[in-house]
Amino acid sequence: MPENYFRRLEKSELLRAGRPLEVDLGCGDGRFLQEMAAHYPERDFLGVERLLGRVRKVCKRLSKLGLENARVLRLESRYTAEWLLPRESVSRLHLLCPDPWPKLRHHRRRLIQKEFLQAVWDLLEPGGEFLFKTDHPEYFAWAEEKVADFGKFERLEWQEGAFFYPKTDFQLLWESQGKALQGLRLRK
Ligand SMILES: C[S@@+](CC[C@H](N)C(=O)[O-])C[C@H]1O[C@@H](n2cnc3c(N)ncnc32)[C@H](O)[C@@H]1O
């Protein structure tokens, strides 16, 4: 729990020496966070989630499994990215199956916007990556367009199975309904 939510954290408050930090925005029920933490004991993980029930559930499971390299912050994703996390502190930032806000009048609630991309750019280390997945083709096209307009990221290939990347709860749900996911992998 940060001592103060109204100032940016110092790297020393968040990072452990020699251990890259990965952040999962909107971690939900935490399957991805848990599997990543178990697979990469030499890295640290921070899930960000606004729903208290989900945060409690994930924390309980992480402590039961003894995964001390993963933590969860109960906070709003955009605020966390823009105002709380230290600059150049994150090695990979994951945004997986976020709410697509399909109605036109709700598009402004979508996380991927110019200001958010700037915040992601600022918090990534040089060479750090932003990974995004969605089942929603129109949100994917929106994200591609916003990323192209932003213009700073290098887009990398992302073949299924190219590296360890567990499926999230929502990915499994969408796939069980026959939906396909699309992914963007961007490097700073
Ligand atoms: C559709 S679910 C996806 C969960 C998980 N990433 C997955 O793929 O299984 C979206 C999650 O993000 C959380 N969420 C949505 N908007 C958020 C925000 N602005 N800040 C923090 N959490 C948010 C929701 O409570 C929910 O748990």
Describe the structure.
Strands 3-2-1-4-5-7-6 form a seven-stranded mixed beta sheet. The protein is 36% helix and 23% strand. The chain is α/β, with parallel strands linked by helices. α4 (77-84) packs across α5. The two termini are 28 Å apart. The chain has one domain (19-187): Rossmann fold, CATH 3.40.50.150. The chain binds S-adenosylmethionine (SAM). S-adenosylmethionine binds next to β2, α4 and α7.
Task: Provide a short characterization of the protein structure.
With about 190 residues, the protein is α/β, with parallel strands linked by helices.
Key attributes of the depicted protein:
single chain; 188 residues; alpha/beta; Rossmann fold; seven-stranded mixed sheet; 7 helices; globular; binds S-adenosylmethionine
Spell out the blueprint of helices and strands.
Layout: H1 11-14, E1 21-25, H2 31-39, E2 44-49, H3 52-65, E3 70-74, H4 77-84, E4 90-96, H5 114-123, E5 124-134, H6 137-150, E6 154-156, H7 169-176, E7 182-187
Parallel strand pairs: 1-2, 1-4, 2-3, 4-5
Antiparallel strand pairs: 5-7, 6-7
Helix pairs in contact: 4-5
Bound molecules: S-adenosylmethionine (SAM).
Tell me which CATH architecture applies here: 3-Layer(aba) Sandwich
Helix amount? 25-40%
Tell me the major beta sheet: 7 strands, mixed
Under CATH, the topology is which? Answer: Rossmann fold
CATH class: Alpha Beta
Structural class: alpha/beta
